[in-house]
Amino acid sequence: MSVQEWTFLTIGLSFSLYIIIAFISRARSTSDFYVAGKGIHPVINGMATAADWMSAASFLSMAGLIAFLGKDGSVYLMGWTGGYVLLALLLAPYLRKFGQFTVPDFIGERYYSNTARVVSVLCLIFISFTYIAGQMRGVGIVFSRFLEVDINLGVFIGMGIVFVYAVWGGMKGITYTQVAQYTVLIFAYLVPAIYISIIMTNNPIPQLGFGSTLVNSSEFLLDKLDKVTSDLGFTPYTENTKSKIDVFCITAALMLGTAGLPHVIVRFFTVPSFSDARKSAGYALIFIALLYTTAPAVSAFARMNLIDSIHDKAYSDSPQWFKNWEEIGLIAWKDKNSDGLINYSSGDALENVKPVYLNERGLYGERKILNKANELNNNEVYIDRDIIVLANPEIAQLPFWVIALVAAGGVAAALSTAAGLLIAISSAISHDLLKKTFMPSINEKQELLYSRLATALAISIAGLFGIYPPAFVAQVVAFAFGLAAATLFPVLLLGIFSKRLNKEGAICGMLAGLVFTSGYIIYFKFISPHLNNEEYWFLSISPEGIGFIGMLINLSVAITVSFLTKAPPENVIRMIEKIRSPE
């Protein structure tokens, strides 16, 4: 069987499994649709939470970032895993004890204000659609390469599958579907990692192979990688280039953003009790660690194999994997010195360094983007960072079924998170905007209908983001985490641990964090990208890390405004005390 046939088989079987699970566990009430009836076992919820949280950014793009950034890429590992600890300890159990359906529900009740509820819905939608762009793009990349279809068609197929099990099953169906998706994605990540670790270091445990010597050599993998990257003009793999303040801010923004992500928080509303929320957080950390401790090894293996596979090789003899990815425009080669050899070294190969798609099956469909060679450096190769995990088994010449398994894992990772985000969006619209704010008289049946309609609308918008994404997967996701850190995290944290914070403070804080953070990101990434470097950044902080400053602004504004205005009413203070008291 060919790679394409294996991919059709594995993805087809996995899609069938997801739809069957969604049908069996479909939602029959608003409680089922929003929080799975609050009856999910902690182990099941832990596995579903891991799938919900480990998105296309974790599966597809994080290893690619580390592979190309080296030690600088470790901020994503530290930020995302550290943030989950914050979420498990500071927010999840208390929000579960609150006992409602959504994050805006908590904010609306805690700050006794429909205005606060609406502002939090605005923040949630802003965050979720930013995040979902990366997921749909990941689906498109997998379909375009391995099923050889137009990337836009790949996005539409992904939309269709999510539509079926999200609209049909709601949170209940999604929970059990995510268990299956976690199983698929973790096997898809670990199997090729173990294969390649054995081939390169003769150690079957990737986490140990990462620090081992190479086969038939006394040289350690990382020492060899440092030497090779230095020789090609790159920063040595194990050295930093980012400033310490930027590393700190990116890590902090990712940590605090993780703790403020509404689609992850809502997963803890699905368990029966306060204590089960803590248990499911612990199980989720174990399931997450399987992938996150493997990612550095996958990154190092991939970068080493990539360099060995293409550098200084004749283009006419380039490996098949290189030609496969070149066909869909996710790799590009420009022969700057006309010697017919592939020179992979430091610097931008092309003048246009934004995501480059040169083929009619590229991300922008029939629209071709022509790029001129950048003659300021010798590098002749453009490689999209998002492909490194998907291409890694091909580069290492693993069996076709392993390559197909990785494709299925990438789709599972993207769809699991996309489904969670869609439920968060639809719940915020139907429950918080309609039922709790503008249409309080609707009954449960009508609310469930509006929930499904909102999900369908959200899927359509998500598809557009997948076709026209603002950046590569992990970068888009980093922006979403920064927005979550700057908007929702402070009001959730202070809502639990501060009795003095009132509605005026919460509303002003969320708006200040949203306007500052989104404005900074939009300015440097889309309005003036030519100024996007450390020389022009505020305090040398990149757009990926500015969410931390946005969070500080949110806190400062919220606390200041709260102390200048009237304290919360007594019933709200009693609610806070009840949430914080032992069960």
Task: Describe this entry's structure for a reader.
With 583 residues, the protein is mainly alpha-helical. The chain folds into 2 domains: 3-302 and 398-580, Sodium/glucose cotransporter (Up-down Bundle), CATH 1.20.1730; 313-395, no CATH class. It is 69% helix and 1% strand. The protein is built from 22 helices and 2 strands. It has a two-stranded antiparallel ribbon. Helix 3 packs across helix 13 (274-292) and helix 6 (103-110) runs antiparallel to helix 7 (114-146). It is globular and about 75 Å long. Mean pLDDT is 85; it is low at 353-370.
What's the short story on this structure?
This protein has helices at residues 3-24, 30-35, 42-53, 56-69, 74-98, 103-110, 114-146, 151-201, 206-209, 221-231, 244-259, 262-265, 274-292, 295-310, 320-327, 388-395, 400-438, 444-467, 473-497, 503-527, 546-564, 570-580; strands at 331-333, 381-383.
List keywords for this structure.
mainly alpha, Sodium/glucose cotransporter, 2 domains, two-stranded antiparallel ribbon
- Please report the first level of CATH classification, the CATH class of the largest domain: Mainly Alpha
Order of helices and strands: HHHHHHHHHHHHHHHEEHHHHHHH
Count the strands? Answer: 2
Task: Give the overall average pLDDT.
Answer: 85
Basic shape: globular
Indicate the CATH topology of the largest domain.
Sodium/glucose cotransporter
The side-by-side strand order for the widest beta sheet comes to 1-2
Helix tally equals 22
In CATH terms, the superfamily of the largest domain is Sodium/glucose cotransporter
Q: Estimate the helix proportion, in percent.
A: 55-70%
SSE class = mainly alpha
Largest sheet: 2 strands, antiparallel
The count of domains is: 2
From the N-terminal CA to the C-terminal CA, the straight-line distance is 57 Å
List segments where confidence is low: pLDDT < 50 over at least 5 consecutive residues. Answer: 353-370
| Strand percent estimate | under 5%
CATH architecture field of the largest domain: Up-down Bundle
Q: What Rg, in angstroms, do the CA atoms define?
A: 24 Å
